[in-house]
Design brief:
9% of the residues lie in helices and 41% in strands. The protein is mainly beta and 357 residues long. The protein has one domain. It has a 14-stranded mixed β-sheet with strand order 7-8-9-10-11-12-13-1-2-3-4-5-6-14. A hairpin with a 5-residue loop joins strand 10 and strand 11. The protein is globular.
């Protein structure tokens, strides 16, 4: 039987279409912030004035974030009624404290206090672990505290010194830290939204973006949409009154049979001003792969009809942004006494910790 260890499971979540491995280990590889009031350097496609204005607004807002600390958690919820309330909490769960030196980051750290994941082909349905993953801009470290099936968790006490890490190594924390629900990450969690948008237009010119103003769940919003409803479409809703914070994201496409499928949707239900003019999600939901009903967009059967509907529920209990006393030493955590240490820091090429949710 193949055993998937917590050292792997604690790092990477493979989620359909939402994760793209993009290296961020140094200044040459890291996506760069655009200067306030200017379009990102990656701009190669012709955009309308309204879209260019929105991208500049996003870049200016992104530049406000200097550092970030989040205490958050996320868990899975299940609906056996095609997405209709009530949703019931499932076993999968992640609780973290995370620090970022801006986003996308030259340095990051995630303490997984408790992570319960689906154990694919494992000895039990779920796997529980606790660990720390950190990258200080040059080298990384993975400290494993415990792992095992729930109720049978063992103390591991191992640490691995690593070379450069990638954004994918930290992607597993995106739901628990709230970054995936903010303007500070694109849907693939690899760069700022303001640089992602011109990139995707350049690569896929058929996804011509347009900007409109509309009500989104009772809030006046700016909507950016790409593509068309009769084929494939991506849409974001931003709140201009709260620092262009993301209110929601949606990706839909029409199947060959002509049926509309909502492949992915995020829904931010609570925002907080965590620094002057900087708003951050405190609660949000993430839905996947269902056929929306006409009268209730969030209701409808799963794409895999025999399966229950699932969603991720994120809640932050504490968020601190732009702390003037932020200590970058947090990105170089000390190894506890008595831990066995393996040195992989001199292995050629970037280190990528792969695993499955």
């Amino acid at each position: 039987m193949k055993i998937i260890t917590a050292a792997v499971l604690a790092q990477t979540v493979v989620v359909a279409v939402t994760v793209l491995a993009v290296q961020i280990p140094n200044k040459d590889l890291a996506p760069q912030k655009a200067a306030a009031g200017t379009l990102p350097a990656t701009q190669t496609a012709k955009l309308s004035p309204d879209v260019e204005k929105l991208i500049v607004q996003l870049a200016e807002q992104e530049a406000r974030l200097k550092n970030l600390m989040v205490v958050g958690e996320t868990w899975e919820e299940i609906s056996t009624e095609h997405g209709a309330e009530p949703w019931k909490r499932d076993v999968a769960y992640t609780s973290v404290t995370a620090w970022y030196d801006g986003l996308p980051s030259q340095a990051a750290r995630v303490d997984y206090h408790r992570k319960v994941s689906h154990w694919i082909q494992g000895a039990a349905p779920y796997y529980e672990s606790s660990s720390t993953l950190a990258f200080n801009g040059k080298t990384g470290i993975n400290i494993n505290h415990s792992e095992g099936a729930p109720g049978q968790v063992l103390q591991i006490r191992k640490a691995t010194l690593l070379g450069p890490l990638t954004s994918r190594d930290f992607s597993g924390a995106g739901f628990a830290t709230g970054t995936v629900f903010s303007i500070y990450r694109d849907p693939r969690m690899s760069q700022f939204l303001s640089t992602y948008l011109p990139d995707i237009v350049a690569k896929r010119p058929e996804m011509t973006p347009k900007v409109t103003e509309e009500d989104h769940e009772g809030v006046h919003s700016i909507r950016l949409s790409m593509g068309t409803e009769d084929k494939i479409q991506e849409s974001w809703w931003f709140d201009p009154a709260r620092g262009m914070a993301v209110l929601g994201y949606r990706q839909t496409y029409v199947t060959p049979s002509g049926r509309k499928l909502c492949n992915l949707e995020t829904r931010v239900t609570k925002l907080a001003e965590v620094a002057p003019k900087l708003w951050y999600p405190m609660e949000a939901f993430r839905y996947q792969a269902w056929y929306p009903e006409k009268d209730d967009h969030f209701a409808g059967p799963s794409r895999i009809l025999e399966e229950a509907r699932r969603r991720d529920h994120y809640v932050a209990s504490k968020v601190v942004a732009n702390d003037p006393n932020f200590d970058r030493g947090v990105f170089s955590p000390a190894i506890p006494d008595g831990y066995a240490v393996t040195d992989r820091s001199h292995a050629p090429g970037p280190t990528t910790l792969r695993g499955t949710r």
